[in-house]
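Explain this one:

_____
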Amino acid sequence: MEDILIKTKNASKDLLKVSNEDINKALAKIKDGILNNMDLILKANELDINNNINTIKKSLIDRLRLTKERITDLANSISDIIKLPDYIGEVIEEIKRPNGLIIKKIRVPFGVIASIFEARPNVVIDIATLCLKTKNACILKGGKEAINTNICLVNIIKDSIKDIINPECVNLINSTDRKDTDILITKKEYIDLLIPRGSKGLINYICQNAKIPFIETGAGVCHLYVEKTANLDMAINIAINAKYQRPSVCNSIETILVDYDIKDKFLPLLAKEFNKLNIKLNGCKLTKEVIDCNLIDDSDYYIEYNDYIVNIKVVKDYMDAINHINTHSTKHSESIISENMEAVSNFYNLVDSACVYHNASTRFTDGGCFGFGAEIGISTTKLHARGPMGLKEITTYKYIILGNGQVR
């Protein structure tokens, strides 16, 4: 590992000398490499699927699986990144002082970004390409579930860029030993920023043990609140999308809050549609009085299932809903379905989460959907980035001061 860290750190310095034009050429080569090696990627991924099919739940297998369509989408997302501005070197702010000094705030790379992630092989492409676009080197450490896919993808990336830039700017720690993670998250002399992507357990472990500056990402106890003035057909459609379309991802909902005044009308509609989709229903006492569901208590509303399971709670009004969300959410994404603009305005202002929606699915909390090309993660903290992290969010800045002999 020490050898990989040293090579990556040195490669990060080489990246500073590479032109933006060559960076984009390297990204185009990665896209071609992915499309030209699709069968190789699918073969490696199938090996990972077969190794885990009986040991992890169905929704996580879906997160692990790569298909031709998903690989093509990943490759096409690189074209979107190429088209995005080259932010490195951008003058963010310029200040002219009375003494003649000109102070420029300049956007620069972090240097080396490390990411630890679980069964998400698409993360390899997202992080590597975003880092290259911003002239950051990256170190990747994925979970054992996707080890073969991860190795395959990183080898394709390194082979694609080797004639343009130093291939050591993208490296994989392919050990699945937890002890290597313990070591990696202490290597602040080589790594400038750590971005974990995975379960609540992984995020908590990083928070408690990392000695490198890090950003909390991913854990998503997201809420959909159906306020009493909501268009119920819209609410049903959004609920289905936000829970069923891809339940294993962090922007899917785990809890549906329903106003007391519409519980007798809305909950049977919801139960009918969710039962068709084999979504398990959990609920509070008031919910269970209206529909057949498993009775749960307050502690269950903290759970991120990443599965075809949803919690339901009946609330008095929008302030009750807001209080519940601020108590139980992971500050990721929340949505209100309502035609009452007073309720919507209070929801916007008082809900303390990175992304707050009105009449839309939380599934849009995604770098691609936000026009960022891709994302390196979804930050649920407030320093230094929040929400989907695109190119700007993986840069920092320094000050350049121009003088002509000034002294203090």
